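FAQ: What does the model actually see?

It sees only this:
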Amino acid sequence: MITLLRRLAAVCALSTALAACGTGRPPQAAPPVSAPPSRPPTLAPGPAGLTPVFEHGPRTRGRTVALTFDADMTAGQGARAAAGERFDHPRLISTLRALKVPATVFMTGRWAEQYPDQARSIGRDPLFEVANHSYSHYAYTRDCYGLPTVPEGRMRSDVERAYAAFRKAGVTDPMPYFRFPGGCYDRRALKALTPAGVTAVQWDVVGGDAFESDPDVVARQVLDGVRPGSVVVLHCTRSAAPATERAVRAIVPELRREGFRFVKVSELIGTADSRARTRPEAR
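And it is asked to produce this:
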């Protein structure tokens, strides 16, 4: 009796399988496994494990150039903003969008707090990437253009506070890149930021737009300095860099005419080799 039942069960199972085949429906595949999101390219730690410093991309891998814009606002400038001074520059961002120019915006946490809607809009636009320019825009060394100084014990927390301000404003994926206020750093600062896991990003072309009112001066300085792989530093603040937007309207078509392609800093870092991408360790 048990043997008969087993045979009947086998026949039923075979019949069910044949019926399924007869439907003409292919067997259902397992749902695809989505790949984990890729991490932004960064540099390996520098000598003695210090924070690596990136200055420009390779000179021999195509005519690429990265325009970067510092969105500066110090921790102590809230009263000036409340009185009407504008540290943002929405017209510049609109021009970059109209010209379809990718760019990296190095933003202070204080700027993101003052202009959260603009920070969120920039951070969620695939044309741009947001990177860290400290929370306070205080210097990480002494004697840096008259800026107040961040104590060594608070350097890392200043960077982390900026990332927290970005997230609060709605910037979901800020880049692991950091620009020292004023570009001033030394070995002590590089060591303090090592646990933060950032790549410090400098530049090889100074736009000279800070407090410059003539866009032709800014445009000429950029055009004369750009080489393949260059990182250009400009500013995204109306009060401190009033000519930048007009200069960009001259810079972009001229560099495109010369065969340059605009990229974000992340692309330059991703294609750089160790000899072209770093500058000597600060002492």
